[in-house]
Amino acid sequence: MSVAEATRRAGRTDPPTIIAVTKFHPAELVRSLASLGVREFGESRHQEAREKAADLADIDLEWHFVGQVQTKKARQIARYAHVIHSVDRPELLDALAKAERIPDQFLQINLTDDPDRGGAQPDDIEALAERAAASDAAPHIRGVMAVAPMGEDPRRAFEKVAEISSRVQQILPGATDISAGMSNDFPAAIEFGATHLRIGTAITGLRPSHR
Ligand SMILES: *Cc1c(COP(=O)(O)O)cnc(C)c1O
Question: What is the pLDDT of residues 155-170, one digit of tens each?
Answer without folding.
Answer: 999 999 999 999 999 9
